[in-house]
Specification:
This protein has a single domain, classed as Rossmann fold (3-Layer(aba) Sandwich). It contains two helices and five strands, in the order E-H-E-E-E-H-E. It is α/β, with parallel strands linked by helices.
């Protein structure tokens, strides 16, 4: 299964990415241009994206989207809503509401 992970370079996202790869899935690490991707396991596909300005095709070719991105609590409620709604819209528009099997938010 191809699984797009928003926040793949953070603590939760990195751990999930490793576990998915070990389980035989194809994790796709969505990350910012400024993110350090050196801890991502070899063989993990990378997809650069800005959660505040997502391209229409960011969820193209995936079966599952996991949102594990966080701001460390330094973000306003408005920004949090913008980011969460943006990835939700992108996933549902790209995959189609009927095609979207799983969508998970992991926040703290």
């Amino acid at each position: 299964m191809k699984i797009l992970i928003a926040g793949s370079t953070g603590k939760t996202g990195l751990r999930l990415t490793r576990q998915l790869l070990e389980a035989g899935h194809q994790p796709i690490a969505m990350h910012r241009a400024s993110s350090d991707t050196s801890d991502l396991p070899e063989g993990v596909a990378k997809r650069e994206a800005d959660l505040t300005d997502l391209s229409d095709d960011v969820c193209e070719g995936v079966d599952v989207v996991v949102f594990a991105a966080g701001s460390g609590g330094d973000t306003s409620a408005e920004m949090t809503d913008l980011v969460m709604l943006g990835i939700t819209d992108s996933a549902s528009n790209t995959l189609g509401a009927d095609e979207l099997e799983v969508y998970s938010f992991t926040t703290s």
